[in-house]
Amino acid sequence: MGVEGDWRCRAGEVFFLLLFRIKLTFARLQNSKKYPQAIVALQAALRGAPADVHTWIKLGVAYRSSGKYIAALKVFEKALSLDPTSWYAKFSIGDVQREIGLLEPALKRFREILVQRPTELGVRVVLAETAHTAGLDEVRGGFLARPETSFIEALQEAVTIIEAGSATRIAWKIAGDALTGLGKIPEPLLFETSKSLALRVLAVVEEQDVDTKIEGMGAVTAAALRLSVSSSESPNRFTALAVLAFKMRVLLETQNEASIGSAWLDLGVSLSILRPHLLPLGLPATSDETLRQAVRCLKFALHKEPVNSIFWNALGVLSFDLSPRLSQHCFIKSIEHNSRSAVPWTNLGLFYLVHGDEDLANQSFLKAQVIDPDWAPAWVGQATLADLAGHLSESSVLLEHAFSLGGSTPEADIGYATRAYTKHRSTPNPPSATAALSAPLFALTRYLSQRPTDPSALHLNALLLEQVGDLPTACESLEKVAGILEELYEVDESPQVEGQYVIAQTNLGRVRLASLDYEGALSAFEAATSLLNVDGEDQSSQGGLTRDQSILLLTECKLGSGLAHFWLGEVDTAAGVLEAALEDIEAHEGSRRADIAIAAGKVYWSQGDEDRALGSFVDAPSA
Most buried in the list 74, 447, 540, 568, measured by CB within 10 Å? Predict the structure, then answer.
């Protein structure tokens, strides 16, 4: 009995030593990144101790590190089944889910852990990062409301970390990214929640006095933004606050050589995003001044990481108009440092396209397509080349292919919708509008979800809706276009904007007339007619309307006004309007006088004046 007990004791010691050596071997293999050997060692350990939770977790880590995410997920779930209280097993499951794109389950895991362990800083950081990633994915998917919720969650967690005073460098990065995302939400539903978080961020920035600690970056200051916050309800102020958040990150990363380059990159990019919104926000900096500061940020970033392809490409984009030589040099350097990325090849192709070298542009776009066939901007670039060469059918095919690739490529969406509408209108016997224009309408809806105030896209959207018979929504879209253009005209009184406004009002009048809104049609036609002068100077050199366009628009407005009066029962007024229209456009060719003459004839006939009606009908073919 004593001999047997001694033997069992010695066997247990041997097993313990063996298990210890296996785990020590795993630690050495993991440190040297020899994950396959580490997996073998851990599997051997688990054969001797199948209920050892820590060994299961280490095996899951080894699987995850070697890229075997599904195996890692199963192993972590096994560990959690052995010990349901292991928060690290839950965290590891969420981390793997995040890696393979299962963001919602991952977010759920992280939230559960923080309910039980609210002080786990690492979990809070990962939750914030995952929420931001989810927001970006939802934007690319074309969702309108979901991204706002995700960005708010990311900002909430980042603000909590910042106010706690720990891990603030990564927290300021997340806060800046989340604010940038919120700034792109066109019609926020949770604006007050975002605003309260933004004010907390601004309070910390003001307390740190960051503007006096970073010289030469005064496009956005905390003091100027504080005034803007009190006078503006625009989501664009989140974009401005993102600049201050990235300033804070630069300040904190100054001594960190590994991260200071990316911090300067974020600051430069955020400044470039803010440029179009400086005037509406009432910020004192000019657009050119802000662009120069953004370029300076990118140069600082490249000073720290001179072989970073992303930094070179970003500087090329920012200097595209500022310095063409610098821009070309940057794109080429980006390709030198990473020739397997389609992005700089596409940007270089666009550079050559803008500067008239179509052969080099085509070569660049083709190279980008070979590297990444799913990169839609390269196909859009080649479609533009085909369009310039007059190959319209080829351009249409390329744009349709770019649209079919999906993803977030606004240029592909608007290009495809425009070409599809033009093709439908120019086809002698077009197919059903609903069948032919459903996909273009979807493309345009996706485009407007990201750029809801683009007047050209809104106008095209209205024309497509008119074709498929959705007249009320078409009216709403044209009314929005007219409002946006009116605001733009008040700023610079551009002939181009004035011409676009006249066209929008003319189309609005026509759509209202078809919707039986005769009073509204008259109002729109009168607004357009008041700005038309067929005897004035041709403004096409300034981007405005040509004389022929003005005559055609005047004809349509007069014809529409006459019809509106007629259907309102004002027959005599309708006849007078059409007679005056014939006199106004008598001396102008291409004025579609025949249409007005026929309409006048119908009005005369309704009045019982058959002689005048017949005379008007007879004159119509020669009109």
Answer: 447
